[in-house]
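anyone seen this seq b4? input:
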Amino acid sequence: MDISQINNNQEDLNFGITASVMSKHSSYLLSHISILRPYQWVKNLLVFSGLFFSTSLFKIDVIVVSVVAFCIFCMASSGIYILNDLRDIKFDMIHPVKRNRAIASGKVSKVSALVILFVLLFSSLLFSYLLEKKFFIIILAYICLNTAYSFGLKKVVLLDAFIVAIGFLLRAFAGCIVIHVIVTPWLFICTLSLALIISFGKRRNEMEILKSEAMDHRKALQFYNIQLLDIILTICSATAIGTYSLYTMAAETVMRFGNQRLILTTPFVMYGIFRYLYLIYEHNLGGDPAKLLVKDVPTIVNGILWILVVGFVIYGPKSFPF
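predicted toks r here
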């Protein structure tokens, strides 16, 4: 073997070692990013609901404030996800899907998770206080409520689902508060109804997948049954569709937007709810609603179309015949 061959072999060896180290560091970084659950940040888009429906979408200062609020809520929610993962690590280890999470699988140590948790929650409180005092109260309430949920309230039947739904409400309220928009009763009841569909749908999915082991994963599931959850989902779905439909036709809505066209968005809301129920009942895919919002193509297309139509209604020409 000549010197050139030896050098080539050495270079191949060095390249292999470098690639292995880079792969290890990449895996380490991705594992730590995964505990933040960035795909769940799609829920925090509710922060922009106040901006979108307030006819202030093209005001730069208002947009900046809303984006900052969104980022702060992402920090707070990611911190809560880490807290939940640390509290539920024993239950996640026996779950067919959640056992692959970074903390449950041991890819991220508990110490590292605790440090990231503290940094995220402290930063969210600090920045929210600097942004808007009332927004700080919302973030504090979100953290306290979800901490109480993680340390016991999640075991209380019905209340466990309502706390999750209130988390969605707080996101919507926060978006209004930071831009000084009044929270309407319509926003309250529509958001609550939709959030309850998601929350109870998730519990139904867990009962279908885990069967007899369901209560080992989530204590509150021992108090539920499929028939009860089906009734609740039916009521929440009817409430959400009915409330949204009434909102589109309300005199204050027509006066605010200067037309009656918002009713055209009702079919998209109905389809979105029906699609979610279809995925729950036919494919058992309601366990992680956030993934459906970023992976289910019909849901994504429907959401985009809804946004476009709502945008046309609010910001389009008022001279349109309807």
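Confidence is low (pLDDT under 50) at residues 11-22. The CA atoms of residues 171 and 196 lie 14 Å apart. kinda curious what u guys think
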